[in-house]
Amino acid sequence: MGAPLYEIRRQGRGLRATVLLAVAGGMVLPIVAGLGQTLKAAFGLFPALGHDRLSVGPWRMLFELPGFWTSLRLSVVTGLGSTLIALILAIAVAATVQGRIPARRGARLLAPYLAAPHAAMAIGFAFLLAPSGWIARALALPLGWARPPDLVTVNDPHGLILILGLVVKEMPFLLLVTLSALSQVDARRLRAVGAALGYAPGMAWIKIVLPLVWPLIRLPVYVVLAYGLSTVDMAIILGPSNPPTLAVAVARWYGDPDPAMFLPASAGAILQGAVVIAAIAALWLGERVVARLALSWLRRGGRGHGAGPVLGLLTGTAMLLLMAGAAAMVSLVLWSFAWRWPFPALWPESWSLRAWFAPGSGLGRALANTLLIALVATALSLTLAVAWLEGEDRAGLGRAGWAEGLIYLPLLVPQIGFLYGLHVVFLSTGAMTGLAAVIWAQGLFVFPYVMIALSDPWRALDPRLIRAAEALGAGPWRRLFAVKLPVLLQPLLTAAAVGVAVSVAQYLPTLFLGAGRVPTLTTEAVTLSSGSDRRVTGAYATLQAVLPFACYTLAFLVPALLYRNRRDLSGAQ
Amino acid sequence: MALDITRLSIRHRGGAALFDPLTLHVAPGTIATVMGPSGIGKSTLLDAIGGHLAPDFALAGEVWLNGKDICRLRPEDRHIGLIFQDALLFPHLSVADNLAFGLPQYLRGRTARRAAVAAALEKAGLAGLGDRDPATLSGGQKARAALMRTLLSEPAALLLDEPFSKLDDDLRTEIRRFTFDHIRARDIPALLVTHDRGDAESAGGTVVGLGQGNPA
């Protein structure tokens, strides 16, 4: 023996400690503090209003509020329903198109649906489906309608339109996630094996590929479910208004002029969190049951040659919904430039820029606020994400499960469960107000998406490239700034574009933390959507949708331009 | 100016050693060859010597370079050059900037640094290609550029990880001669990992086989 033993030292301790501190202090602490505040108020503790005894009074108040039980039912039905429908459709489409459309092109086709903010999509959808919307206009000629039909479509009391809107927005996301998971399981070859055993292509996909893909898309499905159950902006625009879904009801109670409503509102917010947890648990259980049942179905060995029509029908439905989504976005733009557009006409009779340049409409201020918040929140998030990933590299560590969970935490906890509480904490401690508080709150949701967008490309970087730099004498910082970041310019910009898109779409954080005094395109669009001039609403929603598009375009153009003489990096392979 | 490896062994944390302890003396200007079945850890051995070993490995033994134990040094401080199967030129830099990346700090002034790069390009038969996108070079040009980039960083030793295995036969002979000539001219020790007997013969130095279960 006698030969010395060398431990390979993990490096970048300082960096990792800083990142951990920033995540714990900037992300986990606010969420916990906000949740804690909400929880205390839900059980009667709110000293500022003289409530200092633990009680279940707020819950009793909550249960007796008019429409509460309907709101609860609506939330569960719309959230679960939209998620299941979106999931089934996404799986059907993936099973049908896989191998026929290259994954890259699929991603490009879906990108606009992902980039469009929820509120903009919902407003466009409302324009499309309203009794005086495009669909009614298209039907007017054959059916001989001279004026808009007397039907309740948007804001229907059962939340059907809300379900439809959520499906249109979430199905493309689930489809994209599924398609990208496919590249990790060698789906092409598996399907070939299935085909060789006599399985119809779609059935081979569902029986062989799907069980492998599911673990990879489970977390995104949970995120979609949590969003569907607790969305506020889409539910205000498309959902029933009296009573509304639970999340909207809670937001309204929080905004009630009677400060005593704060207590039942907090109980409602906690309940909202419980609903999400229960629904995720139910989905998890359902997964076990389906897995059990599906096994015997699998063992029966049906080749699925009769399943083609079902799959075809589902895929057709999905395509129809995607087209409706596209039409919704187009109708936003049309309305913002339309002037005279009488009912059965399919096209405006005259055009105007008045909606865009109306003095005092606040469009400019909302745009400025939106841009400032988005840029700062994205810059902070991107810096933290790079620091996190670089810390992992230096330590030579993979990501622990708890760290992955930490990233997803803000996406799974319902916003309404902690944001108002956080607002109260900020107010009572005087920590932050106005714009800074809004940026902070939005960062909580921007960071996870930036991190998710950047992680895979970061890890896909050839480690030998970094070793080559090491061997040439480049230290850790030079490796980061002179090799990694320039080579990863395209994914970095894409992650930034994702960050901006997420920030622009935020509604509740802006509303609550800004105390209603920081108008952005989203808050204004949602407010205007209830019965204001369609042209002005259209202008806000169009601008809201254009910002993310512009950023994605830049993320594509800048590397192409900067690296036009660098074939491996220009993205034009 | 020699590379001395004494009873070097590597194991996974909590696992068995990858190969039997290795002892090897590589004199300056010579190229020692390490051969062995695939998967035994030849590349991991080079990682260990170069300082690029992942933290889930443990390393026992000693590596001395020019009379210094380098095992505790960071990779960027070891002055050990690395040549891979692929050229791994930085895709965002021009050919000339790739070469300049490794130039030592003490060489000061734009003109002097550019002159050093131009001279190296000239030596590698790449004169006039400095502004090119590395992706547009041919396989042989990339290999020569990669070697020049490494040599410009003035390494005290060189590690070659199957550097010729992706080249076709004609090119292989040419690049091999080019590489070995430069190593001998620099008078630095080099360690070559390969599958190819021809590489080992052409290297003309000690040949050791990595094995398992033969206590040394």
TrEMBL record, chain A:
Q: Does the keyword Cell membrane apply?
A: yes
Q: Write out the coiled-coil annotation as residue ranges.
A: none
Annotated transmembrane regions: 19-39, 74-97, 118-140, 160-182, 194-217, 262-286, 307-338, 366-389, 401-422, 434-454, 487-508, 539-563
SUPFAM superfamilies, alphabetized:
MetI-like
GO cellular component terms, alphabetically, are:
plasma membrane
Q: Does the keyword Transmembrane apply?
A: yes
Record-linked CDD domains: TM_PBP2 (cd06261)
Biological process (GO) annotations held by this record are: transmembrane transport
Q: Which UniProt keywords apply?
A: Cell membrane, Membrane, Transmembrane, Transmembrane helix, Transport
Q: How does it sit in the membrane?
A: Multi-pass membrane protein
Q: Which family does it belong to?
A: Belongs to the binding-protein-dependent transport system permease family.
Question: Mind telling me what this protein is named?
Answer: Putative thiamine transport system permease protein
* The species this protein was found in: Albidovulum denitrificans
UniProtKB/TrEMBL annotation, chain B:
Q: Which SUPFAM superfamilies match?
A: P-loop containing nucleoside triphosphate hydrolases (SSF52540)
* ATP-binding listed as a keyword: yes
The GO terms this record gives for MF are: ATP binding; ATP hydrolysis activity
Q: Sorted alphabetically, which Pfam families does this protein's record hold?
A: ABC_tran
Per the database record, which ranges form the ABC transporter domain? Answer: 3-216
Q: What UniProt keywords are attached to this protein's entry?
A: ATP-binding, Nucleotide-binding, Transport
PANTHER family, alphabetically?
SPERMIDINE/PUTRESCINE IMPORT ATP-BINDING PROTEIN POTA (PTHR42781), SPERMIDINE_PUTRESCINE IMPORT ATP-BINDING PROTEIN POTA (PTHR42781:SF4)
The protein here is known as: Putative thiamine transport system ATP-binding protein
Species annotation: Albidovulum denitrificans
